[in-house]
């Protein structure tokens, strides 16, 4: 059986590819041939160049594939349509099952605007008639230290809300388990991938300071302040809204859930935030 891995040149897709080990049973799909070709050669795997928006190219890229690991496309104003096209291409190519990397709390009216895109994609996959498994991950622990500015300040409208951030390696391990085990046990299941604890961004900053020695603190913003402080980036409105509402979702309590799904899938507990920081410092 051939497994197609999208996003193989990215963080999670790359980690999943490493765990699968490549070989003839794995096909890499991405947008950039210059980045895909050496990766495919290293893992002794085939590759195909296609974008989610190009239905015919995606259909051709997925020919002969039975299991598709679908990583969400880059944030864009047309991401819902791109995902729809990719799912339709998978069905046209004869793909039997999609494992989709979604986001925790994906819902039609969730606070995090990009989470709504994930909900739309989940719904379209459900309606496609294909077998599916959804893995909804929380914030990545790896993101949090990068949010601190040059003065060591993390700013955003998260308030005292909590987030059950998860280590990228735990996500990749869970995805790989779903791709390689189960005999149908994962069909129609939604797994919520979280760390073992939910913490405030104030607590996250304190943990970064304690573990790394870098002085970091959290400064809450109002929504208006958050939009204003990000205006200088010149990003499109939809992208700024995604940045701001990712914090607002924490304030709303939508990312505080802690589950045992990582341990269920991998057989071991997920890393704490301190564990993650210790492993990368």
Summarize the structure.
This protein is of the alpha/beta class. It has helices spanning 11-20, 33-42, 55-61, 79-93, 113-128, 143-146, 168-180, 201-212, 223-229, 237-251, 261-266, 273-279, and strands at residues 3-6, 26-30, 46-49, 67-71, 97-103, 131-137, 153-156, 189-193, 217-220.
Layout of strands and helices, then pairs:
Layout: E1 3-6, H1 11-20, E2 26-30, H2 33-42, E3 46-49, H3 55-61, E4 67-71, H4 79-93, E5 97-103, H5 113-128, E6 131-137, H6 143-146, E7 153-156, H7 168-180, E8 189-193, H8 201-212, E9 217-220, H9 223-229, H10 237-251, H11 261-266, H12 273-279
Parallel strand pairs: 1-2, 1-4, 2-3, 4-5, 5-6, 6-8, 7-9
Helix pairs in contact: 1-7, 3-4, 4-5, 8-12
Question: Your description of this structure?
Answer:
With 281 residues, the chain is of the alpha/beta class. The protein has helices at residues 11-20, 33-42, 55-61, 79-93, 113-128, 143-146, 168-180, 201-212, 223-229, 237-251, 261-266, 273-279, and strands at residues 3-6, 26-30, 46-49, 67-71, 97-103, 131-137, 153-156, 189-193, 217-220. The chain has a domain at 3-139 and 167-193: Rossmann fold. It has twelve helices and nine strands. The strands form two sheets. It has a seven-stranded parallel β-sheet with strand order 3-2-1-4-5-6-8, sandwiched between helices. It has a two-stranded parallel ribbon with strand order 7-9. The N and C termini lie far apart (39 Å). The mean pLDDT is 97.
């Amino acid at each position: 059986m051939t497994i197609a891995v999208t996003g193989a040149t990215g963080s999670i897709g790359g980690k999943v590819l490493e765990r699968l080990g490549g070989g003839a049973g794995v096909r890499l799909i991405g947008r950039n041939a210059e980045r895909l070709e050496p990766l495919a050669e290293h893992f002794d795997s085939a590759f195909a160049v296609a974008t989610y928006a190009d239905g015919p190219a995606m259909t051709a890229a997925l020919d002969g594939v039975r299991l598709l690991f679908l990583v969400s496309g880059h944030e864009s104003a047309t991401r819902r349509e791109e995902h729809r096209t990719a799912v339709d291409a998978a069905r046209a190519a004869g793909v039997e099952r999609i494992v989709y990397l979604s986001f925790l709390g994906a819902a039609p009216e969730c606070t995090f605007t990009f989470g709504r895109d994930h909900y739309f994609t989940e719904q379209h996959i459900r309606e496609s008639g294909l077998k599916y498994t959804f893995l909804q991950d929380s914030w990545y622990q790896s993101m949090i230290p990068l949010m601190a500015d040059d003065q060591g300040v993390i700013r955003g409208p998260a308030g005292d809300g909590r987030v059950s951030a998860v280590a990228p390696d735990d996500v990749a391990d869970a995805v790989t388990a779903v791709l390689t085990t189960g005999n149908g046990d994962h069909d129609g299941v939604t797994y919520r991938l979280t760390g073992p604890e939910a913490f405030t961004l104030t607590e996250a900053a304190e943990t970064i300071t304690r573990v790394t020695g870098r002085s970091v603190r959290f400064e809450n913003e109002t929504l208006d302040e958050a939009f204003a402080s990000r205006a200088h980036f010149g990003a499109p409105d939809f992208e700024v809204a995604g940045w701001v509402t990712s914090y607002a979702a924490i304030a709303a309590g939508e990312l505080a859930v802690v589950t045992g799904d990582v341990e269920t899938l991998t057989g071991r507990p997920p890393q704490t935030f301190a564990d993650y920081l210790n492993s990368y410092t």
